[in-house]
């Protein structure tokens, strides 16, 4: 089997309302669909997720890197030879893991379809235990405490038992604390809370604020300090009882080793879309297992395609926390034929081959746009 074509299609699915966090204001899923075709008629689907805070991963750059540079250079290669394909991609383009992630996901989808098995089975995983959903949507963004409570309760009413709250609000840490307190009070002690600070705090702020998060039952605090301040993050971890997860500080498996050696983390938020898809995140997960760090499987802001890849990845590893589940928590539609409901309590993978999802090409035609 040989790769005969790599096609890219930028698309945009509007949000119902703007989603604000420390570094971004998002109004839509704006990503790039990747379609790999072969000479035997089997094809695979993946996607590149645009997120400007990560190495300028905007839609335009992703479409050009994949369509003009990476794609043409893997034509003729065997899609089963993933290591060789990665070596070729790395030789052609340095970095740009977000672009390579889309190809990587599509390769796994293609291999699963060629073998007639789901990706989780190809990876040696299991679908016996459903994957819990961390809701609602892609986390509670910047909003008044009352609205945050309403959103959290919506997720919980539909079964979610893990809630993520975005902190680092422009109004300061008092606003962050007020939202966490309100959500905890409304949700009760049974719900697990994670706070994502997105590099917002200084060392002094973190040492003042994170103990208050702990008092309100926050289990995980993600990226409290800027990505390069690992020594300071290690100091926070020593003094604060909550578990610390790193996201922006980690761009490769080597960064995991560095963070572990410095004592800067309890877990790593492994985002497939930003770190190199299933292949690179499994490398990160293996190192986390070796050095005693938890893995928080992540997705950034994908469609059901990218989320499905995360779910298959999670089913193949030991993980510390659940995943997001459906863009319908923020959008009115998805580009796949059978989207997950907005707030499922858990995700149960099936025996469908590949990633187990199909593109709705009619929807893609509607949401696609030209670069």
Secondary-structure map:
Layout: E1 3-20, E2 25-38, E3 43-49, H1 59-73, H2 82-92, H3 97-115, H4 119-122, E4 131-132, E5 134-140, H5 145-157, E6 162-166, H6 173-187, E7 192-196, H7 203-215, E8 218-222, H8 230-239, E9 243-246, H9 253-262, E10 267-271, H10 272-275, H11 277-291, E11 294-298, H12 304-315, E12 346-347, H13 361-367
Parallel strand pairs: 5-6, 6-7, 7-8, 8-9, 9-10, 10-11
Antiparallel strand pairs: 1-2, 2-3, 4-12
Determine the N-to-C terminus distance.
31 Å
**Name given to the CATH architecture of the largest domain:** Alpha-Beta Barrel
Q: Helix- and strand-based class?
A: alpha/beta
Average pLDDT level = 93
In what range is the share of β-strand residues? 15-25%
The parts where pLDDT drops under 50 for at least 5 residues are none
- What share of the residues lie within helices? 25-40%
The H-and-E topology, N to C, reads as EEEHHHHEEHEHEHEHEHEHHEHEH
Strand order of the largest sheet: 5-6-7-8-9-10-11
Major sheet characteristics? 7 strands, parallel
* Radius of gyration, CA atoms, in whole angstroms: 20 Å
* Total number of helices: 13
Write down the domain tally.
2
Number of DSSP strands?
12
């Amino acid at each position: 089997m040989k790769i005969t074509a790599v096609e890219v299609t930028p698309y945009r699915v509007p949000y119902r309302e703007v989603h604000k966090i420390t570094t971004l204001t998002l109004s839509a899923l704006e990503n790039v669909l990747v379609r790999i075709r072969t000479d035997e008629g089997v094809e695979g689907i993946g996607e590149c997720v645009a997120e400007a805070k990560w190495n300028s991963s905007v839609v335009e750059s992703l479409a050009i890197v994949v369509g003009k540079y990476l794609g043409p250079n893997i034509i003729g290669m065997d899609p089963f030879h993933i290591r060789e394909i990665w070596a070729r991609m790395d030789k052609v383009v340095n970095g740009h893991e977000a672009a390579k992630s889309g190809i990587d996901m599509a390769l796994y989808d293609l291999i699963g379809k060629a073998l007639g098995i789901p990706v989780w089975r190809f990876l040696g995983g299991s679908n016996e235990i459903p994957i819990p959903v961390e809701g609602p949507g892609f986390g509670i963004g910047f909003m008044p405490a009352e609205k945050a409570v309403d959103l959290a309760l919506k997720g919980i009413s539909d079964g979610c038992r893990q809630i993520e709250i975005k902190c680092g609000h422009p109004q300061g840490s008092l606003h962050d604390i007020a939202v966490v307190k309100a959500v905890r009070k409304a949700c009760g002690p049974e719900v697990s809370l994670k706070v994502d600070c997105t590099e917002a705090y200084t060392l002094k702020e973190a040492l003042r604020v994170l103990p208050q998060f702990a008092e309100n039952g926050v289990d995980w605090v993600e990226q409290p300090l800027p990505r390069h301040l690992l020594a300071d993050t290690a100091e926070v971890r020593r003094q604060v009882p909550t578990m610390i997860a790193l996201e922006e500080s980690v761009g490769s498996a080597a960064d995991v080793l560095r963070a572990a050696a410095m004592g800067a983390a309890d877990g790593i938020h492994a985002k497939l879309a930003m770190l190199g898809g299933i292949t690179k995140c499994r490398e990160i997960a293996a190192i986390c297992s070796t050095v005693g760090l938890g893995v928080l499987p992540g997705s950034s802001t994908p469609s059901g395609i990218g989320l499905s890849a995360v779910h298959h990845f999670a089913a193949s590893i030991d993980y510390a926390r659940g995943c997001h589940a459906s863009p319908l928590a923020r959008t009115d539609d998805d580009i796949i034929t059978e989207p997950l409901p907005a707030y499922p309590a858990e995700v149960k993978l099936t025996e469908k081959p590949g990633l187990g999802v199909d593109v709705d090409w009619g929807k893609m035609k509607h949401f696609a746009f030209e670069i």
